[in-house]
Structure prediction request, 334 residues.
Amino acid sequence: MKNSLKKLNSFGVESFCNEIYIIKSYENYLQIKQNLKEKKIIILGGGTNILFKTQNLDYTILKVDIEGIEIIEDYDENIIVSVGAGVNWDDFVSWCVKNNYGGVENLTLIPGNVGSAPIQNIGAYGSEIKDVIYSCEGFYLESSEHKIFNKNECEFEYRSSIFKQKLKNKFLISKVNFRLSKKNHRINTSYKALSDKLIEKGIKDPSISDISTLVKEIRESKLPNYNQLGNAGSFFKNPVLKKKNFEKITNKYSSMPFYKMSENEYKLPAAWLIEKCGFKDICENQVGVYKNQSLVIINKGGATGSDIYNFSQKIKQEVKNKFDILLEEEVNII
Ligand code: EPU
Prediction:
């Protein structure tokens, strides 16, 4: 068991697994399948949303490396583009921006690969990937059966989908098909940080490229680059509270920011809750929260997966004690 995963996870923690196979295509998987001795499999994309808590993982890793960007339908107003699961997400966004295809510009610079993006329905600055997904295709590991999931069948939710729930490590996404606009783009400036930036720059009628550039600027100022400081983006999801529970907290902490989702549901920023529990500028066993965004747990160098995990559970416990809210991990923990 000496296959190192250190370079395959953005936390940069050392961990070992039984075998690692690189999957380049469906046919390639069929060949590899004959050698798969065991059933415990982890499908790995960019490794940017995973924490290897255990040092020695009794698993086989399938690393998806399917390439290609191909326009499969071309209409007057929009296109359907089919993208290999192994394509780097931000490379795909750059391709779209360069060609003036609209829909993913708010998701600029999100780490990871295209195939992992629908699994957790990536989202940022007012957009979610589900808004532009046409379908996801791939195959079941066990039966090798090929299937295309249309958008409804993907069961998208906030940072979740059928691929993160029922089909986790059972279905390998090989391609994601997107519907993108060619004209009359729906520019989304609803997110406050973004609209503030547009005002600051004096941009009144932003293009796709403007949005992408500004999102890049905001992200770079708030989020650490994992090549310099190990992290996996937001460690927890933002909790959604029913009105009654929300009012209990907001009565006590009137300065708490929130986002009203419906009459009875309010989303709270986990970063704010974490900060209020005193986790800013705290470092334990080389693990801490990032100075510009408390939702991001960082490896300051040399932390183990269990150091990071223990620190995250401490945060979770403090938030539970202080606010009676149970944070849910966004990162996959193995
Ligand atoms: N806040 C704090 N302290 C902080 C940071 C933020 O109190 O250190 C409060 C502020 O009041 C701020 C609010 O939290 O207004 C929201 O912060 P921000 O806009 O930075 O977004 P977020 O809710 O913390 C979410 C996503 C991010 C995404 C941003 C921008 C989740 C779990 N995270 O973070 O996604 O980039 O919105 O849209 O929904 C990721 O998933 O890895 C990720 C980085």
Summary: The chain has seven helices and 21 strands. The chain has a mean pLDDT of 96. The pocket of EPU is lined by residues 124-125, 191, 193, 222-223, 233-234, 237-238, 257, 269, 271-272, 275, 293-295, 330 (CB under 6 Å).
